[in-house]
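Final report, closing paragraph on structural work. Over the funding period we assembled a curated collection of sequence-structure pairs, and we close with a single example.
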Amino acid sequence: GRRRQADLPGDRLGPERRGAQARPPPAGRGKKKADAEAEEPAFPSAEPATWEFLIKRTDGNGWITDAQAGSTVDVSQVMGGGFPMRENLEGFKYDFPTQNVLLFATGSGIAPIKSAIESGQLNISGGRTCTLYYGVRTPDDMPYVARFGDWEDAGVQVVPVVSRPDAPCESGAVWKGRTGYVQNALEEDGVAIPRNSGALLCGVKGMAESVTSMLTQSGVFEGRVLTNF
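Its predicted structure, as stored:
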């Protein structure tokens, strides 16, 4: 496929995880590589696009997490088809309108969920309730904490869940919130109006399978349990 080249501003990259957001599709992922050759963009525009990337730091990707301002990388087309929200959450396809949206993410799976929230396509302002269950290993593994307040203001109840609250954190953070796994939190809370609920999931396979099973067994239509792949 065609490739786009993106400038990487230094204030968006570093040892901490940063946001991964390519504005147009609210749910995709892309691949990146270094030392890209200059190339005309596939769809040139009058103003340069702004890209954010959520990058999980590993032993082998320092070339990107430590990139300096002005560095360039090759960016592939977005992977995944996105969450089919309009098709499955809007209207009366399942005879019951969607009045409640549940969001589930683990680790870096928060990136497409973040994009879905900030795209406005969840239509939360129309009277829907919305809850985000976000699971990580430790508080230090939780990006976008600074945005939680904005999401709450937009109508999203944020439920962070930490699976290893006793693990030492470099930041010195002490976790006093909910513990365990995302699926544990869902089991504890239940689904209030399953026939009128829809869900978006992105994260590890075990979470996705467990949550999907819980939702459908509670009465959520299988077609309203959406993934971005």
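The chain has two domains: 1-79, 85-227. The radius of gyration is 19 Å. We thank the funder for supporting this effort.
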